[in-house]
Amino acid sequence: METILQAYTDAIHEACIVTIPGVGIRKSKIVHLGKKKYQQRTEEAQTKRWKEFCAAKERDTMWEKIFRVIGKTEKRSEEILLRNENGEILIPSQAAELLAQMFYPDDTMTSNHLSHTGSNYKIEESGLVKDDLPSLP
How far is CA 26 from the centre of its chain? Predict the structure, then answer.
């Protein structure tokens, strides 16, 4: 039984060698060269597209181009809502007030730099008060 099984396996193996062509050295080189050409053309296409993208709008300023590139390349993240010290989400008016206090703190003589202190003294000497300053609409 085992000799019959071995003869059957050998016959199948020999039939496969005759009918199914093996991958020769030449074919593997062709695949390698094809892959190399594909990668090279892909890189060239990406570079060309990137140059077109960057030069697409000649009237854009440098900053508009930068923000356009960032907008296209950066993944969008979910907006993070501002919270107060208690962890409560702020409504828009509270958020605006918090940001104003953070980035535009009250103008006091003790917290100013030397150059700002000089400006404050000049304003006080001129008789202007906070209410006299022009307001923005």
Answer: 43
Q: Are 53 and 65 in contact (CB under 8 A)?
A: no
> Where do the domains of the chain lie?
33-69
Residue 119 to residue 125: CA distance in whole angstroms: 10
Pairwise CA distance, residues 115 & 41, whole Å: 58
Task: Extract the tokens encoding 72.
Answer: 């296209």
What pTM was computed for the model?
0.29
Sign of the dihedral defined by the CA atoms of residues 90, 92, 94, 96, in that order: positive
The set of residues, in sequence order, having a beta carbon less than 8 Å from that of 107 and lying 6+ positions away, is: 116, 120
Contact yes or no for 115/124 (Cβ under 8 A): no
- For the chain, report the end-to-end CA distance as a whole number of angstroms: 101
pLDDT, tens digit, 9 for 90 and up, residues 27-49? 566 667 778 888 999 999 998 88
Phi/psi at 89 (nearest 5 deg)?
Answer: -75, 135
- Enter the tokens of residue 2: 């085992």
